[in-house]
């Protein structure tokens, strides 16, 4: 019961877990976060669209999954170590990205 109360308070105050899509790519070696989504199923329904957008930009998608986070990620695009000086220009805007 306490857990249900905590979730209800989180929903009302905007605090608590949010669902994000975590997509890892090669070429460039990055981890992208898209979201937030209110529920896991919403993230999963949107997943293929984000994968398609990344592939159209020339990325090779390695994995994609919905993850629950206690807030937004510190960075929406994380370049693998050693890639900072090779980071591409502006990150493309994807449909549904806010």
Tell me briefly what this model is.
The chain is of the alpha+beta class. Helix content is 30%, strand content 31%.
Task: Describe what this molecule looks like in 3D.
- This is DUF1816 domain-containing protein.
- Pfam families: DUF1816 (PF08846).
- InterPro entries: DUF1816 (IPR014945).
- Strands 3-1-2-4 form a four-stranded antiparallel beta sheet, covered by helices on one side.
- 30% of the residues lie in helices and 31% in strands.
- The termini are far apart.
- It has a domain at 19-81.
- The protein is an alpha+beta fold.
- It contains two helices and four strands.
Walk me through the topology.
Blueprint: H1 2-13, E1 18-26, E2 30-37, H2 40-56, E3 60-69, E4 77-79
Antiparallel strand pairs: 1-2, 1-3, 2-4
């Amino acid at each position: 019961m306490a857990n249900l109360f905590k979730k209800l308070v989180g929903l009302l105050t905007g605090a608590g877990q949010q669902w994000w899509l975590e997509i890892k790519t090669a070429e460039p070696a990055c981890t992208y976060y898209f979201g937030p989504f209110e529920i896991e199923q919403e993230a999963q329904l949107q997943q293929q669209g984000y994968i398609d957008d990344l592939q159209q930009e020339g990325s090779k998608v390695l994995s994609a999954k919905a993850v629950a986070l206690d807030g937004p990620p510190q960075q929406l695009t994380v370049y693998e170590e050693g890639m900072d000086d090779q980071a591409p220009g502006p990150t493309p805007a994807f449909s549904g990205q806010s």
